[in-house]
Amino acid sequence: MTPEFATTLLNKTLLTAAMIAGPILVAGLIVGLLVAIFQAVTTIHEMTLVFIPKLIAVGLTLMFLLPWIITKLIDFTNQIYQSVKMLGG
Known about the structure:
The model has no long low-confidence stretch (mean pLDDT about 90). The chain is elongated and about 60 Å long. It has one domain (about 20-89). The protein has two helices and no strands. It has helices at about 5-40, 50-89. With about 90 residues, the protein is mainly α.
């Protein structure tokens, strides 16, 4: 295994992880921001108020994006297997 191959593999791994986690994190961030604005406007400062809307948003995002996530993971896994196969001979 060459350093270039290891670097490329690490780059692809981090990119795939960011592509999968990004939409889920953005959904949680947007809902958290909206709830924080609501709390600031209404002066309700309950810490548990943020948890349920974020949980619902992340769950719905996962349900909606699960087929795409699985496809991306399968494609990445196939790329890894092909790379290992080429390295092994």
